[in-house]
Each structure stands twice: as C-alpha cells, then as structure tokens.
Task: inverse folding
C-alpha cells in the first residue's frame, strides 16, 4: 500500500493528456492498474535500472562524466519506453485477435436475428467463449440493450475497450445503418463480407511486399552493423600503424605526402557505432511494422529482434576481423 501511494504521488504530476493516453492503453491491454500508479511505477523502475547501468559503465568502462550522464539518460528512457511498448504490444495482440473473429461474430448475430430472436437476445446468445475479449464486450452491450438502452448505443460501447480501428469502423457502420432505418441482419451480413474482403486484400498486400521486408531486415540487422564493425576496425588499424611506425612524410614523384594517424578516439567510434545501430534498427523495425500491418506500433516486436541480431553481427564481426588481422593490429 505504501508503495502504491508513493507511485500515485509521482503519477499525479503527469500531464492530463498523457494520463488519458496511459488510461486507454491500460484498458485496451486488460491491465488492472490505475494510470497514476503505472506512471509512478514506470518512472521509479526507469531510474532504479537506468542509473546503475550508468554507474557500471562509469566504473568498469572508465567513461567520462558526460558519457555517464548520457548513458544513464538513455537507459532511463529505454526502460520507460519499453514498459509502454509492452502495454502497446498487449493491446495490439488483443486487437489483432478480435479483428480476425469479427466476421464470424457478425454472422452469428445475424443468424440468430434471422431465426426470430430479438436483437438484444441475439447479442447475448452470440457471446461465445472462443471470441475471447469480444465475448465480454458483446455481453456488456447485450445486457445494456436488455436493460432498455437503444441497440445502436449499446453496440457503440463495444470498441471502447478494444483498440481496433477495424472494429470501431465496423460498429460505426452498423450503428449508422440502424439509425438510417436499415435491417440489422442484412447490415451484419454485408459488413462481415466487407471485413473478410478487406482482410483478404491485406494478406495479398503482405505477400507482395515480402521482398521489401527481407531487404530492410537484412540492411538494418546485418548490412549496417557489418559496415560499422569494418570501419571501426580500419580506424583502429590506422591508429596502431601510425603509433608503431616512424613515417613522417614521403615523396611520391614531385609531390610530398604526409602520413598522419587518425586523431579521433576509438571509444567515440565504438559508441557512435552502437548508437547508430540502435537508431537504424529502431526505425527499421517501425518500417517493417508499417509494411506488414499498416501500423508503426506493430513494428515494436521487430525492433527487439533487429537490435539483438544487429549487435550480435557487430561484435562477432569485430572478433573475426581481430582474429584475421591480429598480426597487423
């Protein structure tokens, strides 16, 4: 209880718009926690994890104070964003599941209505366990309709706890048709067919862009890290050669050529490569999600995979290069 009060105090300082966003995210992901508590918990965990990461880097890697502050800030931001991304993935998974069963649910409700059952009873009888989260929302809408609420108003409550644009547009189309005097069973059947056609088109589009997905995945997780490892190793070789040789200036023909080793820090190149790989894989993952599903948020799961593969390629290639050209460095 004390911890919850502490988190709630921290969360109260957050802006209202951000609180409303977190509240909607928690509702859509079926996480039973107050927005203020989640915000306070996320901030606390971010600092508890982020600052020790910076301290470990400062002690063992002997980095500068400025770099320590930068790593700590980045670690705090990564943890804070990751907690929100986890909720977003839960909500996305729930929405994707519901979108797949929308046509079956609509046709089941339509079949019950055509069998002579009233719309409110048809809704209640159509709430099947295999519909998952949609079952709960259909039951709520049916109970409200049985209690005397207009059927169109009851239906409009279904998408509020499920973050699916497809479901929202579907319910909106049905309610507008009802208000215009349309027959509910016919509306449900036609809407179910439209949703199925849309899903079929999305699958065809996804199949057609497979090559783009493969190219982006390879470029972000293999190509870029490999180039960064080669370039950092080349700079390290030049610095090493410049340090052990006494070459000052050479004359090629009539032109003097002066050899000077790079003055840039190897640590700077290393951390720049890590940061560049992180940025490349982050945006690469978002692009993959956009191509696959039309939503940037769906690419969050790709970011983790791309980052893991990219860093693995970077460090493994550095080890291989060091082994192959060890005599030169």
Result:
């Amino acid at each position: 209880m004390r911890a919850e009060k502490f988190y709630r105090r921290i969360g109260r300082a957050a802006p209202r718009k951000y609180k409303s966003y977190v509240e909607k995210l928690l509702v859509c992901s079926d996480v039973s926690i107050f927005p203020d508590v989640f915000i306070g918990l996320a901030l606390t965990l971010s600092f508890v994890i982020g600052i020790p990461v910076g301290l470990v880097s400062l002690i063992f890697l002997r980095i500068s104070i400025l770099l320590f502050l930068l790593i700590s800030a980045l670690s705090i931001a990564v943890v804070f964003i990751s907690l929100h991304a986890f909720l977003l993935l839960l909500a996305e998974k729930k929405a994707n599941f519901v979108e797949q069963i929308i046509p079956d649910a609509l046709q089941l409700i339509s079949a019950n209505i055509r069998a002579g059952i009233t719309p409110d009873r048809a809704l209640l009888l159509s709430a099947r366990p295999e519909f998952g989260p949609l079952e709960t929302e259909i039951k709520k809408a049916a109970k409200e309709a049985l209690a005397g609420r207009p059927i169109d108003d009851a239906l409009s409550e279904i998408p509020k706890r499920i973050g699916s644009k497809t479901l929202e547009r579907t319910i909106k189309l049905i309610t507008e048709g009802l208000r215009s005097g349309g027959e509910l069973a016919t509306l449900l059947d036609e809407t179910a067919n439209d949703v199925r056609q849309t899903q079929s088109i999305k699958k065809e589009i996804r199949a057609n862009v497979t090559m783009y997905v493969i190219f982006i995945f390879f470029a972000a997780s293999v190509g870029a890290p490999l180039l960064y490892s080669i370039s950092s190793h080349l700079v390290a070789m030049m610095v090493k050669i410049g340090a052990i040789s006494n070459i000052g200036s050479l004359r090629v023909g009539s032109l003097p050529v002066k050899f000077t080793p790079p003055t840039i820090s190897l640590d700077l190149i290393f951390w720049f490569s890590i940061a560049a790989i992180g940025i490349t894989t982050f945006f690469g993952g978002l692009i993959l999600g956009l191509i696959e599903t039309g939503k940037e948020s769906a690419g969050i799961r790709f970011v983790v995979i791309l980052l893991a593969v990219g860093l693995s390629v970077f460090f493994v290639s550095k080890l291989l290069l060091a082994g192959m050209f060890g005599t030169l460095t």
In short: The radius of gyration is 29 Å. The CA atoms of residues 182 and 276 lie 56 Å apart.
